[in-house]
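Narrative of accomplishments. A recurring question from our advisory board has been how the design workflow behaves on a single, concrete structure rather than in aggregate. To address it, we present the structure tokens for one chain from the evaluation set, followed by the sequence designed for it. No filtering or post-editing was applied between the two.
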């Protein structure tokens, strides 16, 4: 992409921030009300104009249209998030990279250590309120947001673009697609189905925009 295409970078930064909010924590009424008031599904940037993107926006629109800040509905959505990403039994779409990249599907395995070293090398400090492994998909969305912000602040400096490229090609996209595919297949709500498919289209757009060559890695889930 052109270095000075700041409008595109700002769009991608805003999207990554939304995905951080959606994927990092259990849903809260305040965020859902904000999405509804902002008419998020209508104003979502059309990145790929694909059938899947249109379907995802229809799903999200359907959910937000019927959302009425009802406590029972919120509990149901929280249960959907918890079941898909955390359990109580085996999670349907675990949010941690090492559970996809490790043959034993363990937390904090070698791929997590590789990501930790990558962050340390580039001075990236990842903080989470809870004691989450740093390869949580929501945390990585926050790092993507941070790097896009640095690219916007320093449009003539390619360093941050190169760091973002390595993060996406090596540490995230090899398993990120599988995570959101599983989330879509196992979610019972149009909210998470819609965001899962929008995430997949977001990844597809990143690959095209930054001309990424995603590393082929064995996936164990």
């Amino acid at each position: 992409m052109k270095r000075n295409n700041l409008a595109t970078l700002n769009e991608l930064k805003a999207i990554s921030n939304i995905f951080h909010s959606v994927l990092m924590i259990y849903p809260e009424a305040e965020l859902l009300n904000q999405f509804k008031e902002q008419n998020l599904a209508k104003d979502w940037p059309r990145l790929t104009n694909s059938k899947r993107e249109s379907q995802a926006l229809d799903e999200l629109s359907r959910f937000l249209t019927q959302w009425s800040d009802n406590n029972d509905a919120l509990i149901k959505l929280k249960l959907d998030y918890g079941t898909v990403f955390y359990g109580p039994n085996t999670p349907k779409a675990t949010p941690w990279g090492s559970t996809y990249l490790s043959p034993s599907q363990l937390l904090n395995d070698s791929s997590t250590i590789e990501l930790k070293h990558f962050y340390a090398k580039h001075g990236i400090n990842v903080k989470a309120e809870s004691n989450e492994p740093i390869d949580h998909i929501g945390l990585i969305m926050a790092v993507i947001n941070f790097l896009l912000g640095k690219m916007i602040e320093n449009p003539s400096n390619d360093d941050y673009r190169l760091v973002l490229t390595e993060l996406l090609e090596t540490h995230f996209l090899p398993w990120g697609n599988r995570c959101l595919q599983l989330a879509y297949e196992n979610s019972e709500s149009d909210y998470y189905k819609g965001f899962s498919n929008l995430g997949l289209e977001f990844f597809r757009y990143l690959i095209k925009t930054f001309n990424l060559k995603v590393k082929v890695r064995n996936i164990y889930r």
